[in-house]
Amino acid sequence: MNAVESNASVLERMARVVEKVKDRLLRVAAALEKAGVPYAVAGGNAVAAWVATVDEMAVRNTRDVDVLLNRRDLERAKQALEAAGFVLEHVAGVDLFLDGATAKAPDAVRVVFAGEKVRPEYELAAPGMDQTEIIAEGLRVIALDALLRMKLTSFRRKDQVHLLDLIGVGLVGEKNLADLPPALADRLRELLQDRLG
Length: 197
Fold this sequence. Notes:
7 strands, globular, two-stranded antiparallel sheet, Beta Polymerase, domain 2, alpha+beta
């Protein structure tokens, strides 16, 4: 195998991974929509969807698929997603829908419960289902302001990168500072200063 063939093989694998995540996300959304289960895309895919509304070339791929659900709808979601080939597992305190019986956690859909803290130490709970909107092709995602608060609350390295993506396309900026609790405003201010510095 020469270098050109090897590069093509790597690029094909990269493209397959992106397609697998996209397929998983669309299958979950379609199954929940069909069953009438309220949901919203969360996490990195929600960030990517928002970024794509401004600049598709600025979209960052992610392998994570996160979905916001009401806890009371978990059983209905389980039935809908099992019919689509997913398997509900509870792993390390997190509810996951594995993409098939032999799948591992990276090939799963992580459940975030609306109105509940993702971690006990977090300042804010996840948004409610009233803080979602359809932004493209019928895909329901967490509203931008709510997504901003979630990312600032978590503030792990990947959350900071996602926030920088939102800042980079102009969806988030100084205009958001006044609407945030002081601790979250400080985090956003830090990112804004780092980006300028």
